[in-house]
Specification:
Layout lengths: L1 E6 L6 H12 L4 E6 L4 H9 L4 E3 L9 H14 L3 E5 L1 H13 L5 E5 L11 H13 L6 E4 L2 H9 L7 E3 L13 H10 L7 E6 L8 H14 L4 E6 L8 H9 L6 E5 L4 H7 L2 E4 L9 H8 L4 E4 L4 H5 L4 E3 L4 H15 L2 H18 L2 H17 L2
Parallel strand pairs: 1-2, 1-4, 2-3, 4-5, 5-6, 6-7, 8-9, 8-11, 9-10, 11-12, 12-13
Helix pairs in contact: 1-2, 3-4, 4-5, 7-10, 8-13, 11-14
Length: about 375
């Protein structure tokens, strides 16, 4: 099949990472990508693979006539068998342009599970309402990456019969235990032997609630004498972020935290840490970093948002969101569990096995292909 992916932006983000992994893994079809906004980091990486990537360069939260015209012309030019949209803006705009171009096989993608009106832009909520109203007759299917996403969007009026859950998939050959990478990064970061290293890979965004993590680290200082450190990885997680630096100073944990900014060696980062923490307050659907860490045999401590708890199962710790005390206690409890080395190694192996069995990229590709093939015959 010729498959056209339309995504709101192809820069740093969870859905963007999934699309990038998908295109690499799917050898069965020919892929094209259109980004409504910039080509972005993932767009650049995808283009290096020889995959056509087009950027419409529309401003954030604004639709331009030139952008819509270019989108329509590209759809006509590419002539895809199926159109897969990713995220709300591309679900709506991609559907309109596709119908105008005479294309009927449209599959939507949902990669969010929280539309809290205090945290979600009015324009986004308005688009969701429109999508819910037209979900009965525009898309052939609606793919959600999480069970929570299905529940939330069905309650908002999305056509339940069209909803399909396909969890994100991961390349377990890329995300795999790697002792050499672990040792190299820990030496670079000056992490002494015997020090527990926590890590969180997540862009600077209110959704990720770094303030909650930093408050939890301050609480952790009062709970254990064991040596520990924390690395923060992601866009704007560097010394130029005055708000972040002020938080570290206020909670007196600046000496315990290393800010690493945006990195491309995430498999190595996951191997370097002992535990990965996700402190998100809301908005997660199927957080990639949790599965990526577990594929590297790293247990996780997560807040109970989206399907994070479903990914972790009984291999890690799940705590309420926005509760720094409970998060700090879970981190202290994890340090204690690490003292029993055979049990800890068994836990690490179970993390890896859980991702291999349930969330491989091959499983995801097969399920998407099945949806597209059914959509093609469902006329």
């Amino acid at each position: 099949m010729q498959v056209l992916h339309i995504i709101t932006d192809f820069n740093d983000g969870g859905a963007q990472a999934v699309l990038y992994r998908f295109i690499i893994a799917d050898k069965q079809n020919t892929h094209h990508v259109i980004s409504l906004m910039s080509i972005g980091w993932y767009g650049e990486q995808t283009a290096k693979l020889g995959i056509p990537v087009h950027a419409l360069d529309m401003p954030k939260s604004r639709v331009t006539r030139a952008g819509v015209t270019k989108l329509y012309r590209l759809i006509r030019q590419i002539g895809p068998d199926a159109i897969q949209t990713w995220m709300y803006h591309s679900d709506l705009l991609g559907s309109v342009a596709a119908r105008l171009a005479g294309k009927q096989v449209i599959v939507w993608g949902i990669h969010n599970s929280d539309l809290d009106p205090t945290q979600t832009a009015f324009t986004t909520r308005a688009i969701v309402r429109v999508c819910a109203a037209i979900s009965g007759f525009i898309p052939r299917k609606i793919i959600s990456c999480s069970e929570e996403g299905v529940r939330v969007h069905t309650a908002l009026g999305y056509q339940q019969q069209k909803m399909v859950t396909i969890p994100n998939g991961y390349d377990v050959s890329e995300f795999a235990p790697n002792l050499a990478a672990r040792q190299e990064l820990r030496q670079q970061w000056h992490i002494p032997d015997g020090t527990t290293l926590f890590g969180m890979v997540a862009r600077w965004n209110p959704q990720k609630d770094h303030a909650n993590l930093i408050a939890a680290l301050a609480h952790l200082k009062t709970l254990t004498p064991s040596p520990w450190h924390c690395v923060l990885v992601g866009s704007k997680l560097d010394a130029d972020n005055d708000t972040l630096v002020e938080l570290l100073d206020r909670y007196q944990v600046k000496d315990r935290v290393t800010l690493l900014g945006l990195r491309s060696d995430i498999p190595a980062v996951m191997n370097a840490v002992d535990l990965h923490v996700l402190s998100s307050a809301y908005g997660e659907a199927f957080p990639n970093v949790v599965a990526e860490a577990m594929a590297c045999a790293r247990p996780c401590i997560v807040t109970d948002v989206g399907d994070a708890g479903l990914i972790v199962g009984d291999t890690g710790w799940v705590v309420p969101s926005s509760d720094a005390v409970r998060l700090g206690e879970a981190m202290a409890g994890a340090i204690d569990r690490m003292s029993d080395l055979p049990a800890w190694q068994q836990r690490q192996a179970q993390c890896r096995q859980r991702i291999e069995a349930n969330f491989s990229v091959q499983n995801m590709v097969a399920k998407y292909n099945d949806v597209w093939e059914r959509a093609l015959v469902d006329r």
